[in-house]
């Protein structure tokens, strides 16, 4: 069963090139910008680094050697979350011009995605949307579950 699972994971892993699939911004109740960056097909280790930019300027990175622009210093946190997601948290989000936001995921390869938005068009963050942000993942779990159960009980 272990081998079977391992093979499944490998197949899933190589079935797509490393890429950033989704950038989802929202504004929290505290007026912070939350920007979720979903990516796929990274290798299990080392952990990828994740970096966010606004109009090309570094906002924050999980790589501590990367220095953010002074304007973002102490206002930004970037964390890698479970399930191939990286989250930016920017406090005091008052800027209301359209800007290009880029998420960059670096492992051996680099993948990135840019999206242009401005504050007034963003939705307020809700707790539930995070869980079901991408139904593809849910679907995958639902599809794999019977297979897993079958092998566990065999
Ligand atoms: C972190 O950033 C530094 C400076 O840009 C770079 O030399 C280093 O390779 C990066 N580390 C990782 C793990 O990406
Ligand atoms: C974002 O940062 C603020 C200030 O540091 C903090 O209070 C808040 O809990 C953070 N939000 C998230 C989702 O990490
Ligand atoms: C965002 O990037 C696109 C493509 O490079 C460019 O056409 C657009 O003007 C940029 N938007 C802003 C607000 O800089
Ligand atoms: C519900 C949702 O946002 N689904 C998206 C999940 O991600 C894939 C690409 O990886 C999109 O095609 C779906 O629209």
UniProtKB/TrEMBL annotation:
Gene3D superfamilies according to UniProt: Immunoglobulins
Q: Which terms are listed as keywords in the entry? A: Cell membrane, Disulfide bond, Glycoprotein, Immunoglobulin domain, Lipoprotein, Membrane, Signal
Which is one GO molecular function term here? GTPase activator activity
Q: InterPro entries attached here? A: Ig-like_fold (IPR013783), THY1 (IPR033292)
The signal peptide annotation in the UniProt record is 1-17
Source organism superkingdom: Eukaryota
Q: In its keyword annotation, does this UniProt entry include Coiled coil? A: no
Which GO cellular component term is one of those annotated?
Answer: dendrite
This protein's name: Thy-1 membrane glycoprotein
Per the UniProt entry, what species is this protein from, by scientific name? Megalops atlanticus
């Amino acid at each position: 069963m272990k081998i079977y699972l391992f093979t499944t994971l490998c197949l899933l892993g190589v079935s797509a090139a490393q890429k950033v699939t989704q950038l989802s911004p929202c504004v929290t109740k505290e007026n912070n910008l939350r920007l979720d960056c979903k990516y796929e097909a990274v290798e299990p280790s080392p952990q990828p680094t994740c970096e966010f930019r606004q109009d090309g300027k570094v906002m924050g990175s999980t790589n501590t050697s990367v220095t953010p622009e002074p304007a973002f210093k102490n206002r930004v946190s970037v964390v890698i979350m479970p399930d191939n997601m990286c989250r930016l948290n920017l406090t005091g989000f008052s800027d209301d011009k359209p800007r290009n936001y880029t998420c960059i995921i670096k492992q051996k390869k680099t993948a990135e995605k840019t999206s242009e938005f401005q504050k007034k068009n963003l939705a307020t963050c809700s707790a539930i949307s995070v869980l079901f942000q991408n139904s593809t993942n849910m679907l995958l779990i639902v599809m794999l579950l019977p297979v897993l159960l079958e092998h566990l009980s065999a």
